[in-house]
Design goal:
Length: about 675
């Protein structure tokens, strides 16, 4: 649904978004009206003090004013319940009701101000009456202040231009000025997003790399949202519908319809060995996060165990490992890895845009030099993640299509300079020349580790990489195929990050648009049912759509209703077109290496406290070509969940490398 147009500008709120806030205010106003009425009926004969008549009149007028406000809010709630997301016609009176409601704030402000003055001059009146009127004045100003905050939140900086374009959008006649106007709107949107990012990341150091990341992120966001006219609640409703639809498809899908990508016998044979390697290296990858993750995993004892390290002055052991900005990190790193300080060659917690913290340790058990790269844990890291356009890499290999995620490749180049130019790897191999080289990382660090392994292959041809929960949008197709020779990725459950790429996000947007276009229920019912389904489950086939028989395959087809949610209305528009479809800037990218997928067995785990068990299998990258919506899409990404899942797989008696049945692939 397009945002409402009020006062000649578009706002980031739709006419069906007012049900829940309106219902909440209506509840408060009714209670308030009943309280004032009871107060007046009980104390109207006791207002014989100075200014007592004014206080009585104040309560009478307040009762009338509250009654008008209650009637207006009741009308707003009732109108907000009408229609659907794509059918705002039954709610066309909402703008008039909002004008009336906003106009009522003026007498409310005036009356609250007068009430404050009269109460201040009525010190001899009954204290209960005075206290009650003071409370009403305070509540009035709280509601007014809360309304001002809401107006600031739903204010759209591009509202003036968007309102002009929305009024012209319904016509399908091509206007040469439209493309110029849309281009100007996109430029303005990029500027607005850049200002938002700079405000959000106000503490980030403003160097050339940061400015590059701000521009890249702003362009991505402005491009992604430029062809839709959705408000945030529409996206939430679409995600709840998609969650239920995905569960319904998986439930009704016959085993014969599932395409199985079974690995060859050689891959099945080494699954156990690679799982053991993952279980060994994952604690070291987690240690790169430092003390925050350690305290998160040990909330009751963690601070006591490493508290002394935070206050301890810098000693020679810190210089031995060559670290910088260690602070409380060193003690937590030692405890999470179980290694000794002499095993560490270098520890760096230096953190900037495109510059990630990392560890270099000697792993005597596996006889390897391990480089562990930290994942996302700061605003700088988020800017690195969001620099999502592709750039060419000069890897000096025979691979033709050498493209990768720009932000992560910049981080990998920084790591390469530190490890090679600063002589850190030379120092490590001077201590243990017979050891191999292993690069590991989690999340953002996994992506940087995979690219770093590519860069180091020339000097270290036997390098190995273990990428834990890497982002999907990382490598071009050629690099993905090449990475299988030396990289293993590990993914748990519905983890969203290994499914996260610009192309997958574009696909997610299209699915949301189509589900919203099919929906035959009002938004408040979708959200209420979505909350119930997310918490307690239910029948996923009971989708609030116009489709019959539970057949949702038609949702992949273009819809006329979808076009009402898109701003591009030229005759040449096709619903499959995408502003992100540029093959040069945002081409399809893939996760690194061979992929081990740990899938949870048993029930879904809604509101249950059972001990999860996992099965492991080799997976094809196509199994992660869709973002899965669910309660564990974020929690499955946490490092402690990966460690527990690996422990649960490793401790099972069943053969974890046995072939996967075709129906469970």
């Amino acid at each position: 649904m397009a945002g409402m147009v009020l006062f000649g500008r578009r706002w980031a709120i739709a006419s069906d978004d007012l049900f829940f806030p309106g219902l909440f205010e209506l509840f408060l106003r009714v209670l308030w009206w009943l309280g004032i009425l009871a107060l007046y009926l009980r104390y109207r004969g006791k207002l014989d003090c100075a200014r007592g008549v004014l206080l009585g009149n104040y309560m009478v007028v307040l009762l009338v004013l509250l009654a008008v406000i209650v009637c207006t809010m009741l009308a707003i709630v009732c109108v907000s319940m009408r229609g659907t997301i794509c059918n705002p016609g039954p709610r066309k009176s909402m703008s008039t009701l909002l004008y009336i409601r906003l106009a009522l704030f003026l007498p409310e402000i005036v009356w609250a101000s007068l009430g404050a003055v009269w109460v201040a001059e009525s010190t001899q009146c009954d204290k209960i009456v005075v206290s009650a009127i003071i409370a009403t004045v305070v509540v009035s100003w709280v509601i007014i202040g809360f309304t001002v905050v809401i107006i600031m939140v739903v204010f759209d900086p591009l509202g003036g231009k968007a309102a002009r374009y929305s009024s012209a959008a319904p016509t399908l006649a091509f206007n040469p000025e439209d493309s110029q106007f849309v281009g100007g709107l996109k430029t303005a949107a990029t500027s607005v997003w850049e200002k938002r990012m700079k405000l959000l990341c106000c503490c980030v150091e403003r160097d050339d790399q940061a400015h590059m990341a701000f521009s890249s992120t702003a362009e991505l966001f402005s491009t992604y949202f430029s062809d839709t006219d959705l408000v945030p609640s529409d996206l939430v409703a679409g995600l709840t519908l998609l969650h239920q639809q995905q569960d319904s498809l998986r439930r009704n899908q016959a085993p014969t319809e599932v395409v199985s990508h079974s690995p060859g016998p050689a891959q099945k044979d080494d699954l156990d060995a690679e799982l053991e390697n993952c279980r060994h290296y994952m604690p070291i990858a987690a240690a790169a996060y430092g003390w925050p993750l350690y305290i998160y995993r040990n909330p009751f004892t963690g601070l006591c165990r490493i508290g002394g390290d935070c206050c301890r002055s810098r000693t020679t052991e810190y210089d031995v490992v060559g670290g910088d900005q260690l602070h409380c990190h060193f003690g937590s790193v030692l405890r999470m890895t179980g290694l000794q300080h002499r095993d560490f060659i270098h520890i760096s917690f230096h953190d900037k845009v495109y510059e990630l913290p990392f560890l270099v340790v000697l792993d005597h058990k596996k006889e390897s030099v391990v480089v562990a790269v930290r994942g996302t844990m700061s605003l700088q890291d988020i800017l690195t993640d969001l620099s999502a356009e592709s750039e060419n890499l000069d890897l000096g290999c025979e691979v033709q299509d050498c493209m990768a995620h720009k932000g992560i490749s910049q981080a990998a180049k920084y790591l390469y300079r530190r490890l090679v130019s600063d002589g850190i790897l030379s120092q490590a191999f001077s201590v243990a020349p017979e050891y191999g080289l292993v690069i590991i990382g989690h999340s953002l660090g996994a992506g940087a580790a995979a690219l770093l392994a590519f860069m180091l292959r020339g000097a270290y041809p036997h390098v190995r990489c273990y990428a834990f929960s890497p982002p999907r949008g990382l490598l071009s197709k050629s690099l993905y195929e090449s990475s299988k020779d030396f990289t293993v990725s590990l993914v748990v459950g519905k983890d969203v990050v290994p499914r996260l790429s610009v192309t997958n996000m574009e696909d997610l947007k299209k699915k949301i648009l189509r589900l919203i276009a099919h929906c035959n229920k009002p938004k408040y019912k979708i959200l209420l049912r979505g909350c119930w389904y997310g918490l307690f489950g239910g029948n996923p086939d009971d989708l609030p759509t116009e489709l019959d028989g539970g057949d949702h395959r038609d949702l992949t087809l273009p819809l006329l209703g979808e076009q009402s949610l898109l701003t591009h209305k030229s005759p040449g528009y096709r619903p499959s077109d995408s502003p992100l479809g540029s093959p040069t800037k945002y081409p399809p990218l893939y996760p690194p290496g061979r992929i081990i997928h740990l899938e949870e067995e048993g029930p879904s785990g809604r509101c249950s406290c059972y001990t999860a068990q996992y099965t492991a299998k080799w997976a094809h990258e196509s199994e992660f070509s869709e973002i899965l919506i669910g309660g564990k899409m974020l929690t499955d990404h946490m490092p402690d969940v990966l460690i527990r899942a690996l422990d649960r797989v490793s401790n099972r008696d069943a053969c974890i490398s046995c072939p996967t049945p075709a129906g469970s692939a």
